Amino acid sequence: STPVKVEKRSRSMKIRVMGIYPEATVVRGRDWEFANQDGGKGRKGVVSDLLTPNSTSARSTVRVTWNSGGNNVYRLGFRGKVDLQYAEGEEAPGGECYPHP
pLDDT-based confidence at 72, cuts 50/70/90? Predict the structure, then answer.
């Protein structure tokens, strides 16, 4: 591959990455179909891992540990389904990146 010269990052603008990442607080989303695995409607959980269920669907599922004690894997785009959403008033702690100019 051919190297590409880039500016020093100290002069570059950083932006915060948004999305559901590890440590994000979540609740049931629009496609929830898992009865009370979460401990009941409105109960919160914390994302512990981003997972890749197969080679054509990278990082489209996550493992959640519920405040009620259980944990399981849920869809975040896998086969078009979204089982989770941010808990109201919470913000995901996604990292930072340098946007391409």
Answer: very high
Per the CB < 8 A criterion, the answer to whether 68 and 40 are in contact is yes
The first and second tokens of residue 23, run together, are 């440590």
CA distance 50 to 77: 12
pTM: 0.75
Six token digits for residue 20: 């559901």
Per-residue three-class SS string for the chain:
CCCCCCCCHHHCCCEECCCCCCCCEEEECCCCCCCCCCCCCCCCEEEEEEECCCCCCCCCEEEEEECCCCEEEEEECHHHCECEEECCCCCCCCCEECCCC
**Degrees, nearest 5: CA angle 60-94-92:** 85
Q: What pLDDT does 10 receive?
A: 72
Question: In the chain, pLDDT over 90 holds for what percent of residues?
Answer: 46
- Residue 92 confidence (pLDDT): 67
